[in-house]
Amino acid sequence: MTAASSGSHPVRTEQDVVLARQQVRKLAVSSGLRLVDQTKLVTAASELARNTVIYGGGGDMDWEVVEEGIRKGVRLVFRDEGPGIPDMKLAMTDGWTSGGGLGLGLTGARRLVDEFSLESAPGNGTRVTICKWS
Amino acid sequence: MDRIPILRMGEFLLVTIQVDMHDQLALALQDDLSERISRTSARGVLLDISALDIVDSFIGRMISTISGLSKIMDAETVVVGMQPAVAITLVELGLTMPGVLTALDVERGMNLLRERVQTQ
């Protein structure tokens, strides 16, 4: 797998969440994702970016347009230096939330993408990586 | 701060969301709408989301909340114009929005509102 282009986007405020969504939409279009897959990726990115702001105290979104043979994809990494997730299994349970949300952010985002990985430890921030292929 | 306009059409209120909403804007709409329902004694709200190219869990919750709060203020809410890709994504996300009335377009939405209000 090779990276065709890459960059980074701050995710610190609510307005950044909107801008990150718009950036992801552009990347999804340029990677040839069909409309439904674009929508799923942008929605997943919106959930994760909001988590970064609300629970992570702000962070960054690294993006990469990746190629593997004839297929293209978008890989996104949401990372923060926040308190981290003490119980990963609980965090990946539908309907569970430590804040005021619906508890669909992480689990919902995982269902919307092709690849999903979550790395977090208490006190060491959180890093969520997702990828969607065309 | 920006606000989403709420238009009055007889006994109904019409809201067309035409911008990519940040979370505070969505919350402000909830507040504005409840205040307008109370002030105008509106019987129904038509919420047009045809310009929204995503609905995530936050906006989904806003839609459910608007529907619920209008109901306890004796007004019905109909959500119209959801794009097919948005509908597919919402279901996969796990958001089914129980109790929220929907219609495909504004015209059907208005008809549904009129029916609901008449039969009460």
UniProtKB/TrEMBL annotation, chain A:
Coiled-coil segments on the chain, per record: none
Listed SUPFAM superfamilies: ATPase domain of HSP90 chaperone/DNA topoisomerase II/histidine kinase (SSF55874)
Domain spans labelled Histidine kinase/HSP90-like ATPase: 37-130
A Pfam family hit: HATPase_c
InterPro entries the UniProt entry points to: HATPase_C_sf (IPR036890), HATPase_dom (IPR003594)
Gene3D superfamilies attached to this UniProt entry: Histidine kinase-like ATPase, C-terminal domain
Protein name (Swiss-Prot/TrEMBL): Anti-sigma regulatory factor
Organism, scientific name: Luteibacter sahnii
Lineage: Bacteria, Pseudomonadati, Pseudomonadota, Gammaproteobacteria, Lysobacterales
UniProtKB/TrEMBL annotation, chain B:
InterPro entries the record matches: Bact_StressResp_Reg, STAS_dom, STAS_dom_sf
Entries under SUPFAM superfamilies matching the protein: SpoIIaa-like
STAS domain segment(s): 2-113
Pfam families: STAS
CDD domains: STAS_RsbR_RsbS_like
Domain of life, per lineage: Bacteria
UniProt cross-references to PANTHER family, sorted A to Z: RSBT ANTAGONIST PROTEIN RSBS, RSBT ANTAGONIST PROTEIN RSBS-RELATED
The name this protein goes by in its record: STAS domain-containing protein
Source organism of the structure: Luteibacter sahnii
